[in-house]
């Protein structure tokens, strides 16, 4: 198994639990700061040391998922080290949150490159190996920020919704080779969620609830999707929040109107929109949808 961004948080938890279950793991982490600036590669090696201390098998990798050559190098390391590659967890991520009218091209580009291009790069490199094997599992971390919405995260939300669409396309394109592709939208307290701004009592309450959600709670779902037990599951989006697992809906038409003469501006205004307005999606954010305390 190859887990990107596995030096800490959710990625490390998945790597540790996978090793406990008997998997050999490539622990990828470039040791970047929250906004993606490279600092130290020690995190990956620390995770490997912890895995080896409990009797597991792992190797550290410091390549950058946002670079195609980096993705190819980590996949090659997996095959060179363990002979095959059965599962990839695309978990690496950065944040550069700010309101859209203040967002620079560089901040948008950097986040999309790590999350969306990183998912493409690693999956694309892994697929060549998995096609030869005739099997494999691609597991991608999406987010309710993309699936539902959140303030001040246009870059992150766009990337994470793109990941969900990419995953579905991979599931469709690769099933002939026994390769499956699924998403997890995780709720957990980690280095990334620790950056959430707390500027109101409501936001403070939300953050305090999130602090109770351990990254280790995400691992069982990821391990299921990586395992032979999950061989029939592909093209799906799951959310995991503490002890809750959700199957998330994917966009489908919710209501339609038809007019035999076709439409013009007046009829759209007077007929189509009044008929459809009752089914509009509210302008809500993730916390509005997941508004109850986790169990």
Automatic annotation (TrEMBL):
Give coiled-coil spans as residue ranges.
none
Report domain Ketoreductase positions: 2-195
Tell me the protein family, please: Belongs to the short-chain dehydrogenases/reductases (SDR) family.
User: Which species?
Assistant: Aurantiacibacter atlanticus
What InterPro entries has UniProt attached to this entry? KR_dom, NAD(P)-bd_dom_sf, Peroxisomal_Beta-Oxidation, Sc_DH/Rdtase_CS, SDR_fam
Q: What is this protein called?
A: Putative short-chain dehydrogenase
């Amino acid at each position: 198994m190859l887990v990107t961004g596995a030096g800490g948080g959710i990625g490390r938890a998945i790597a540790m639990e996978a090793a406990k279950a008997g998997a050999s793991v490539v622990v990828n982490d470039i040791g970047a700061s929250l906004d993606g600036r490279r600092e130290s590669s020690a995190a990956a090696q620390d995770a490997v040391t912890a895995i080896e201390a409990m009797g597991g098998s792992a190797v550290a990798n410091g390549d950058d998922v946002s670079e195609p050559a980096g993705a190819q190098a980590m996949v090659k390391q997996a095959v060179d080290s363990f002979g095959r590659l059965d599962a990839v967890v695309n978990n690496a991520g950065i944040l550069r949150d700010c309101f859209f009218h203040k967002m620079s091209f560089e901040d948008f580009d950097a986040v999309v490159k790590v999350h969306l291009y990183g998912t493409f790069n690693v999956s694309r490199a892994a697929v060549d190996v998995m096609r030869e094997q005739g099997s494999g599992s691609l597991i991608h971390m999406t987010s309710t920020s993309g699936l539902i919405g959140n303030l001040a995260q246009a870059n992150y939300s766009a990337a994470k919704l793109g990941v969900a669409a990419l995953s579905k396309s991979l599931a469709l394109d690769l099933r002939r080779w026994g390769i499956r592709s699924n998403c997890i939208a995780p709720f957990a307290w980690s280095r990334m969620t620790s950056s959430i701004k707390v500027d109101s009592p409501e936001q403070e309450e939300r953050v305090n609830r999130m602090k109770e959600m351990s990254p280790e709670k995400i691992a069982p779902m990821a391990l299921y999707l990586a395992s032979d037990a999950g061989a029939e599951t592909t093209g799906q989006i799951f959310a995991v929040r503490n002890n809750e697992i959700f199957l998330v809906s994917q966009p489908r038409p919710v209501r339609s109107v038809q007019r035999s003469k076709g439409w013009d501006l007046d009829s759209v205004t007077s007929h189509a929109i009044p008929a459809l307005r009752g089914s509009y999606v509210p302008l809500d954010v993730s916390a509005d949808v997941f508004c109850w305390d986790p169990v």
